[in-house]
Amino acid sequence: MDVFKSLNMKKSILFCFLFFAINSTKSQDIGNILLAGEDASLLAENYLNPAITGLMSGMNSGWYSTAKTHKKLGFDITIGMSASFTPSKGQMFEFVSSQYNYLSVSEGDSELPTILSDNESVTIFDVSIPTLSGDFKVGSFSMPGGVANDLPINAVPTTFVQFALGLPFKTEVNLRYVPNVNYDSKVKGSSMGIGIQHDLTQYFGLLGKLPFSIAVMGAYSKANIEYAINNSNLSSGISVTNGLASFKLDTWTVQALGSLDLKILTFYAGLGYNSGTSNFDVDGDYTLSYDVQDSNQNVVGTLTENISDPINLVFSSTGTRATIGARLNLLFFKIFADYTIQEYNTASAGIAFSFR
Known about the structure:
By secondary structure, the protein is mainly β.
């Protein structure tokens, strides 16, 4: 029985790579994960964690391509993309049976693929939940393997459009905004971000005469994604009212920047700190169906159970970061690329139209 078709990992969860420009090429269900009862949250957390961490790493990237700020009322428009690479530790997770109350797999404790693994093996879980009468609610479901083979590279992509405006005192503000975007009639999402960059070179006297700039910057981003769950997506063994899966992501970064600003080329670097949190919620009212077994594993009937708002997960990521990059300056047209060493190393690239 496929209870949770609506949480198709290669469509709805990969939509979490949002308007960040990914659409899966083949379908695979997360299975009846709600049948796992209280264990569903831990299993979903282990499976999804690398995708969420990679997404937060990407959202904190690509904010600058020089430490030099615009002159007052100078501006640029930047179109870019970041790709946060999945480390080997993020491709598998250890299933430790003692951490789960009701789940088991035939292999016992084992290494299982996360959503960003290139291992597409499907795992079959057995569920056995004791009832007050001494019987057991039983079922089974399949957990999909990874989706890395559906991606050009095993990395979480994020795209952005950014507007920068020069302010007084050699300060500039950077804005990112994607309005509510509907995808496939069931999914919608939006994102926004704001960053502030302040030039410190002005305080160092003669240093200001050199083609070298130093600055500090801070940025905050948020994204919201919602996926509607309705009965047309569910098997005959489950029904839902007001079903909704949603992601909410909040990230911020603070960095010290330096750049060598030559006429044709700019070389830049940054050193700083990232932080991010994300909530993944599955809301709505669901009716699940189980077989009932006695202590001798004989099926003695069936049972339905009503649950509401069954999953609420919180993810977090913090750590230092170091960036190095270069930019080609062709009058008002700029092309840049950089690489950031952090928990999920990230490459960023883009083009900008810059004035003053």
